[in-house]
Amino acid sequence: MWLIVSIINDIIKTRNTRAFGELCSKMYHRLVGYVTVPLLKCLMHDKNMPPKSNYFKCVLCSKCTKPKERATVNKDITKYLRRKFLIEAKDGDIICNKCRHIFRKERDHKVLPCVKTSKSSSQTTATFSPPSVSLKIPSTSKSHAYCCICKKPGPKLIVISPDVRTATYVDNNILIPSGNRCCPNHICDGHLNDDALCRIKTTDESFVNRTYLLEIMNKMRKKIRESASRRLNFDDSNLSEPDYITMTGLSKINFSEVCSTLKSSVRRAFNSVRQAFMSEFVPANLGFQHISREEVIQKHTRPLAQSMFGGIASNNAILVLDGTYIYVDKSNNFHFQRRSYSTHKGRPLVKPMIVCTTTGYYVSVLGPYLADYRNNDASILTHMLKTNVEEIRDWVNEEDIFVLDRGFRDAIPLLEDLGIQAEMPRFLKKGDKQFSTEDANMSRLVTKIRWIVESSNARIKTWKYLSHTLPTNQIPFIGDFVRIVCALSNKYAQPLSQCRDVESDQLEAAKMIHLSKMSNTLKEHVETENLLKKKLIWKVASECDFENFPRLDDQELRNITCGVYQMKLASSYIQEYTDEESDIFVHREDSNLLRIKIQSRHTSSKKHQLWIRYNESYIDSWYCLCRAGARVVGACSHVAAVLWYLGKELYKDKSVSYGVRNWGEHVFRCKCAA
Question: Which residues are in the DDE Tnp4 domain (predicted)?
């Protein structure tokens, strides 16, 4: 009613004919709008009425589309939806323009790389082929946004790797298109797990292109080659009884019986190989006759050793000798049992004598020898020289140098008669508890060179056969096995000690020789002032007392110790030492003089005392009461540990472990024990 009244009022106010016509047209449209809209709203609630055009959904993405944004699904789109998304489209279904654009893009641009070379250019261009090959092989739908197995959307999806896709095809005859993604829990150890294989949905037919076919063929070829390269291992417990029957025609028990009867033949084969090594390979790479004395001097002698013992311009051969141990089982032959028992090691063994150069090159391996007191290192060296083993006396010249340990002391007179210079650590004089500064310095010069033979012996034990206890029936072949290992090391292994440059070796040797001629001024001060017995002149140190202690890096610490062995022990010493804060003392009158007590690594009831004098720039001097603590050519392990802690580790986070774990926490001990 109010609509009609408003129209009449507008007509009365209008007197112009033209304006009257326009007003009538306007009123007509207003009336139609006010009547039609409520009517359509009522009709929309009728379920029997057809849906409005705006509510047509895309068959692929389910998005409501407008008339201008959709199209009817044709045959090509129907095949595409069935192959890729496992969607069966019906007649009259629509697809939005966005999904149709994706279809057209894949149809027009999905191609196979094919190399074509033009005559005008050496560059190659890639052409492609559509997925036109139809295979009667089940295949999953192609999906990157959804899991191809459980259809869950992303984002926590992973791309299925080529190896997993190949394994799925080989094991289950299912093709997975490249680029498909799935949930991470569907893959286990490079394969789809059982749950994924049960849930996976596939089509009966696969459409692939040449790229995918070539990829599958290359993967299959790779797996076949890998399988062919694997050797059968009948010692593997995973082989079942049917496996033995399939591969050998014998049961597992029968196969073991056959192997036991063939052991003698296998043993003969091993003997043939060993004899071939000893007749051809070993003589060419080991022994005094395989290498000349001049070649040893020129190629296998470090300038550090040459400068330290022989002089820069000397032409002396330097050899390092020591015996190594090969452990054997206890023999039932009582005579051999007594002669092979080592009182030093407390077990039966035999001793090959190793002769190497200062770079770790094996010159010769002699023996093996028995292990009783009659066959100590000095006796073995005496036997070698007197019997002229491998014509050793013709090989060495006068003034050549043998670097030895203290076990060769009884052979020194013979070496002096032959004109051979022997270098070995000094002996502690009777009644003394500590080496003098001179003796400790000279011993350090020897150990700086002699360590190479210990590393050479350790290299032999890296061959597991020689690191284990051998049965007595292998004793006749131990010497051959050790020689074969040393010959292989000479031929193929890198030198154990290499010189970075001649000048650095000569400078280090000159520094150590200069230090060996100096006295320990701090030792003299401690003994003169009787600092060992005076207690009141020291106070417990605090962190502020170390503010002027110089910061030391790894290179500076190595310069002080003249090596790395002491630094390797530092963390083990400090791990036990850090809880004993009261063991660091500062002199009340000289704040740059420290006194430290550090626990012995061997004796629980013993602590070593040491003193360190320093200034803000460098470490001035040190002295320790241990046997080698008076030397100035390097520092003992106790001094090195304290310098490492105060100069480097003290400024780090104290909660950080030093990398040495106390395994005693997991072992019970008696309550009465300390």
Answer: 321-490
